[in-house]
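Holo model, adenosine-5'-triphosphate. Inputs:
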Amino acid sequence: MSDINTETSLIAPVPLLEAQNISHEFDYKLFSNINLSLHEKQTIAIIGTSGSGKSTFLNILSSLLKPNSGNVRYDNSDLYAIKKRELLNIRREDFGIIFQAHYLFRGFSAQENLNIATLLSSNNVDEGLLKALKIDFVMKQDVGELSGGQQQRLSIARVMTKHPKIIFADEPTGNLDKQTANEVMNILFDYVHENDAGMILVTHEDELAMQCDKVYKLVDQQLQEIK
Ligand SMILES: Nc1ncnc2c1ncn2[C@@H]1O[C@H](COP(=O)(O)OP(=O)(O)OP(=O)(O)O)[C@@H](O)[C@H]1O
Ligand SMILES: [Mg+2]
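Output:
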């Protein structure tokens, strides 16, 4: 019996998400043949200068942009080879994408914007989460009346309401003061650890990046391992 256990423990766990040999270019080559693996409970930060391709890489990882070459594997599927419907299901149910520019529905209240997430995922809005994000008291307001930071936290609440398996976050705390940013990031880190999820975070704040398990810098079309 013990032999079997030993053997099992030697097998490397399958990554949650695996990007293989990814290359992409728009007007100029952004990256060429880069690889990345994300495991359960792991957080990875991607840093790099403006225009180096961080958001583009995150879009590729999160099912939104097919790369010029290479593949992204999730749950035994190659994201860009499966049927559109399957891809939409993964995006809707398993992936939580926090955009650099957050897309809230103007003309609707904060609560209505959150209800969309519950409709799509059949999860309820977690009052505790809204309190932790300090937006519980603005839920009746139109999103157009919320401060930039409140809108950002609302879009984070909307993503977390889905209970995603992977959070993809592009500068999620860009509009927040340092203390609020730390609080929000701690909520995201706790979520990942408590739910066997994973997170890929794009940021230009080195201090925040270093709180992740791994840090890569996108430079000279490659991912340089910083941590
Ligand atoms: N859809 C697109 N069509 C054409 N060019 C694009 C597109 N998306 C991004 N680019 C270009 O690719 C380059 C990298 O953009 P990207 O948004 O990935 O950079 P970034 O590293 O996230 O920068 P920042 O730190 O400023 O957010 C830029 O030159 C940008 O203009
Ligand atoms: Mg960007």
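The radius of gyration is 18 Å. The domain at 24-104+166-225 is CATH 3.40.50.300 (Rossmann fold).
Archived with the compound record.
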